[in-house]
Amino acid sequence: MTNKLTLVKADAQIQRCAIGNSFSKYKPEGEKHTKKFKVEENETLKQLKDAFRKFRFDEVPLSDIHSYIYKLTKSIHYTANDITNLSITLSEFQNMKDFSKRAGFFLSVIINNHIDIDTNFIIVTNSFSYPINFFGYRTTKNITVQGDVGSYAGYLMKCGSITVKGNAGESVGGDMGGGAIFIEGDYESLGEEREIRGGNIFHKGKQIVKNGKVSI
Question: What is the dihedral of CA 161, 166, 170, 172, to 10 degrees?
Answer without folding.
Answer: 10
